[in-house]
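hey so i finaly got around to running the thing on Cation transporter from Parasulfuritortus cantonensis. pasting the sequence first so u can double check i didnt mess up the copy paste, my clipboard has been acting weird all day
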Amino acid sequence: MTSNPAFRAAPARAYVIGFGTCLLAWILLTGTLAASELAAGALVALVATAAAGSRLTLLGGLRLSPAAPLHLVRYLGYFLVQLTLSNFDMARRILSPSLPLDPGMVEVHTGLRSELGRMLLANSITLTPGTLTVDVDDDRLLIHWIDRAGGTDMEAATRAIAAGFEQRIRGFLS
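ok and heres what it spat out for the 3d tokens, dont ask me to read them lol
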């Protein structure tokens, strides 16, 4: 009988991160540090963490360092800039149908090791207009790109689509 990797046991570190995140969310939502609220929050966080169980293995890629929140903010800023630029680019292409398009599939490489890191990279690419992640297979992502003008070889596509996101994601994920 083989074990399903999706149901492997989460490391204790993942449970601590999950519990801490749930408790922090509770405190931020209630806006108080009253003992009764903290006790209720701890209970809810404990139940939520226990219910999540093996799904917490995704949190194993998080880096717990003092600089991690700063890297997360850097990533969010970069993502918002790329999202805005991509929206303007797509609007320009829609309003100027004479612009040449070269849609197609390209493969990009990622050095991110954690499932959460690869998932965040794939979703970041998908959420920016003009690109859509079609498949993720280990260290390769298959992307539909509205205009392959940046190049169709893996290195050029990786530089144009994924490198900026990946560089910033590495600050808080492995």
